[in-house]
Amino acid sequence: ILVGTGGAINGSYADPSFLEGEYENGGDGLHINNGQSSELTGSKGSFFNSVAIVGGDSPIGVGGNALYVNGFGSEAKIYGGSFIAGKGSKDNGYSILVQNSAKVHVYSGLFDGEIKVDRNAEIIFYGCFMRDRLQVTGTFADETYLDVLIRTSYGGEITLTAVSEQDCETAPSVSPTNFPTVSPRPTPEFNHGERTTLSFVEISLSLASLLLVGLF
Question: What is the rounded distance in angstroms from the CA atom of residue 40 to the CA atom of residue 142?
Answer without folding.
Answer: 32
